[in-house]
Amino acid sequence: MAPRYVLSIDQGTTSTRAMVFDQHGRLAGMGQREHRQIFPQPGWVEHDAAQIWHNTRRVIPQALAELGISVADVAAVGVASQRETFVLWERDTGRPVCSAIVWQDTRSHQVAEGLLADPGADFFRSRAGIPPAAYFTAPRLSWLMADRPELRVRARRGELLMGTMETWLIWNLTGGPDGGVHVTDVTNASRTLLMNLEQLDWDPELLEFFGVPESILPTIVPSSQVVGTAVGALAGVPIAAAVGDQQGALFGQTCFEAGEVKCTYGTGAFLLMNTGADVVTSSHGMLSTVAYQLADGSKAYALEGSIAVAGGLVQWVRDGLGLVRTAPEIETLARTVDDSGGCVVVPAFTGLFSPYWSSGARGVISGLTSFVTAGHLARAVLESCAWQTNDVVEAMAADAGVPLKSLRVDGGMTSNHLLMQMVSDVLDVPVLRPTTSETVSLGAAYLAGLAVGFWSDMKVLRRNWHRAGQWDPRLSAERRDQQRLAWRAAIDRTLDVRN
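Structure (tokenized):
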């Protein structure tokens, strides 16, 4: 009997999940394990890469067992990852030589700020499509090798390998020290600040600038292509896709045409617009990035707007302030009032990303009076996510030259109906949620399935997309303008407290 499923591994910021999808793109089985969040100093965020690999080995059989299938039923595996997070490990032993430094980490923001002045953002945008920022891999990798010079020496001797998290997992899935395949796909490579966006290969000038030996870097491959065969729990199954999580969500949402936009609401929030086969250079704080590349070489680019803190703000309200016991309770609390009472929250916990790109910005709560209650603060938190989305959408529309007609959404926060209504109100367009909300994993599965012929073409994938929810704008233009003015004033205060 032919394999009936595709398995995807979604290595995210807070957990690793294995998900099994059938031919209709329906989620059929899942395993999930969280990993530790390590905060050695304020602004530093790390993960234990060995723990993540251990968790991956546990969630795969869990997902298969939930569905009651064997490895023989799996046609291919795709791996989605949290992109800019990276780790260094020993080539011969597979032992990490440092913690994985996470995309949220700001330890290299002074390095990045210096690069904005010398040699300037244009130098990096012309090659990599992105500005120098602590968000991307290269400044943090450069910082690490300056902080621990012995790692640079070992790297130049060929003893170490570097990779973002999909690279780390694929290397281990295909044998690790015993023949593991060392690859990254074009979407993840485009987030390192080391890849030439036009040529889709490592850029010699950028490598030299950051002092990164090419010998430690993985080979760049298409997002959809068989790169190796798994050993262990998935023995014999082809590893057929790798993709950054947000590009995976774009593909899972079947945004295959230029101008189509999705937003994933998770720890952060990430909007991507497919811009077709050509790079669109941003002049409004967006990122130019690769959307995907197929095995035949065809590719699409995207504009991206990145929001550092979305669901992470709700977690802070839960864990830091103790206003709610669970994340979903914030909607109930916010519905106890009709508005935010003039309160505005800008969650610049680790600086501001798109379109401001200020690593030194810090969070602000403005408009506080004795009238403000926990309900008002909860509502301001949700409104913050909506207005951050609007900042990105306005900048993206200016770059692309086309207004937004609708927004496809996914991620855990889309279960918050009040938030989705706020997003629709602020953007003044319909917001659409698909039946399959796990679009990151679905995108990785789609890319893997295409590579092995499990799905014949992208038209089939289009037919799998079905709408589960829609929110239409209800806010008056006058009220929207009032909220916009309050939001802009709070953003100005946030930027004024940079350090």
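The CA atoms of residues 318 and 326 lie 7 Å apart. The mean pLDDT is 91.
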